[in-house]
Amino acid sequence: GGMSPLSLATPEGFFAVVYFQIHGKLSTGLSETKKKLFRPDSVRGRVVEIGSGFGDNFLFFAENGINASFTAVEPNSHMMPRLRERVDESGLSVSLIAATAEGAGGLIAGGSVDVVVSTLTLCSVTSLESALDNIYTWLKPGGKLLFIEHLPAIQGSPYRTMQALIEPLWCACGGGCHLLRDSLQHLRLIQGFSVGEVRDVEWSDGKKEPG
Fold first, then answer.
1. Residues 162-197 pLDDT 10s
2. What is the CATH class of 10-151?
3. Which residues make Cβ contacts (< 8 Å) with residue 122, sequence separation at least 6?
4. Which domain of life is it from (predicted)?
């Protein structure tokens, strides 16, 4: 189903309406990257997804043979009905927590999680430090954070200047997304996290090449 126009009355609702229009194309565009990062051998055991949105990843998991015990952490109440539909459609075992990544600390037991998954969520949490602290606490020793994230453009580049100019409006309208936030650098500076393989995102519009 679609989103009610009444949702536009709040910032969270406005973002949900906008994201509803683009999330399908976004998910398709990231599909090749997801296939390389989110694999049956890497997403298993007890898995927490922060910022589940409309639940696109759960359909992806189901379609790609990934079956784990999932917990979805999503704060936007306007997205929750669609998220529940997607969870049901996926047939996966998913429990839902209505909270932010930084506010869900005590709702998930420390040292109980094998994998935390994040797709374009670290850019929008209110406190990246608090969110990463929770993730570190939740993970078992040797647990993994698998994430897809955009990073700021190179310092001094025209694109970086443009990002700086539009960030305040972008953040207000885009669910708190910070264009200049370098989540990867934050991770590298936090004691306890060991940053493994980093790859540039591959974008595909989902169209088949001719031939």
1. 877 877 776 666 666 766 677 777 677 665 676 666
2. alpha beta
3. 128, 131, 132, 147, 149, 181, 183
4. Eukaryota
Sorted by sequence, the CB contacts under 8 Å of residue 158 that are 6+ apart come out as none
pLDDT at 5 over 80: no
User: Is pLDDT above 90 for 46?
Assistant: yes
Tokens 């995102």 sit on residue: 201
Determine the residue type at 169: L
The two three-digit tokens of residue 177, written as one number = 């997304």
Domain boundaries, the chain: 10-151
Give the type of residue at 142. Answer: G
CA distance 108 to 48: 9
CA distance 6 to 92: 31
